[in-house]
Amino acid sequence: MRTTLLRRHLRAFALGALAAWAATAVHAQGADAYPDKPVTLIVPTAAAGGTDTISRLLADALSKQLKQPFIIDNRPGANGILGTELAARATPDGYKLLFTYAAAMVVNPSLYRKLPYDPVKDFAPVAQIGRGGNLLLVRQDLPVKTLKEFVAYAKARPDKLNYCSWGNGSGGHLAMESLKKQAGLAMTHVPYKGSGPCVQDLMGGQVDAAFADMSSTVELVRAGRLKALANSGPSRIPMLPDVPTMTEAGYPFTNYSWYGVLAPAKTPPAIVKKLNVALNQVLKDPAVVQRLRELNFTDLPQNTPEQFAATMQKDLHDWSVLVKDIGLTLE
């Protein structure tokens, strides 16, 4: 009897091991063949903004690296929620990915009571793409040259000035609300579906101020089309060495923004790893690095999916503290 049971257990163990080996072999073979058709990068912002510009640069580089087209699918709206939800519900096979910005993943969970996706449970982090602060910008004809002058000007005109951002609850929105609280300002928020339209209207004079990403605005500052009063990073940037940090300008506030690639949860780890390796290779390409520098991207951390996941977890905590301090919630 014992011999028969032992044989059954050994047979069951052997069959289980064979099944596990077969599954591993299939996954490995799938990762080796991946990608064998075009890959879609869902971008939850409008075209022409910083997120879109960086996504297209990386899509072109990945197309060359992995020998398949990487196609951009812009899905703007609701501070990135629409496009992010679409990516979360995609088939987890590596052929629909999300290229996004920090606020959509680590700020929204603290702002919205009912978010249609969970940034931790619904996604597999692939790679972080760059990081940095945002610029505090004002229209060129606003009669101020420094942050303190701007605060004094706005205080003298309560509810007369407005500012734009790339959506309710976006990093630009929260940064300005933090400044408003510190300085005791009353200004009107005008949300847009992307940073591109916001910056265009700022240059056109339809709005007075904004926090906006550096990649699409530094050259506008250099050309005299906008004025930069401060940046929200921890240090000054080489491209605009005369622009102080928010803390240096007298209003302590520091926050990083980043871009990142994520896959739907349950995407095979081998595919996630292959994408991570490809992206890190792309970020070593001198032509890509040069173009990113031209877009004012100088901080390019190259990390593993696990390191990117750890960054997201830390940022989820840090932003939740800021949102609670401001007292902002959205439906």
Notes on the protein architecture:
- The protein has helices at 2-33, 50-66, 81-88, 102-111, 147-155, 171-183, 195-204, 218-222, 269-282, 286-294, 305-326, and strands at 39-43, 70-74, 96-101, 123-132, 134-139, 162-165, 188-191, 209-213, 226-231, 257-264.
- It has 331 residues and is α/β, with parallel strands linked by helices.
- The strands form two sheets. Strands 2-1-3-10-4 form a five-stranded mixed sheet, sandwiched between helices. Strands 7-6-8-5-9 form a five-stranded mixed sheet.
- Strand 6 (162-165), helix 6 and strand 7 form a beta-alpha-beta unit.
Number of strands: 10
Alpha-carbon distance between the two ends: 66 Å
Helix content: 40-55%
Biggest pleated sheet: 5 strands, mixed
Strand arrangement in the largest pleated sheet: 2-1-3-10-4
Radius of gyration, taken over Cα atoms and rounded to an integer in Å: 23 Å
Strand proportion, as a percent range, falls in: 15-25%
Topology:
Blueprint: H1 2-33, E1 39-43, H2 50-66, E2 70-74, H3 81-88, E3 96-101, H4 102-111, E4 123-132, E5 134-139, H5 147-155, E6 162-165, H6 171-183, E7 188-191, H7 195-204, E8 209-213, H8 218-222, E9 226-231, E10 257-264, H9 269-282, H10 286-294, H11 305-326
Parallel strand pairs: 1-2, 1-3, 6-7, 6-8
Antiparallel strand pairs: 3-10, 4-10, 5-8, 5-9
Question: Which short descriptors sum up this protein?
Answer:
331 residues, alpha/beta, five-stranded mixed β-sheet
What is the structure about, briefly put?
The chain has 331 residues and is an alpha/beta fold. Helices cover 45% and strands 18% of the residues.
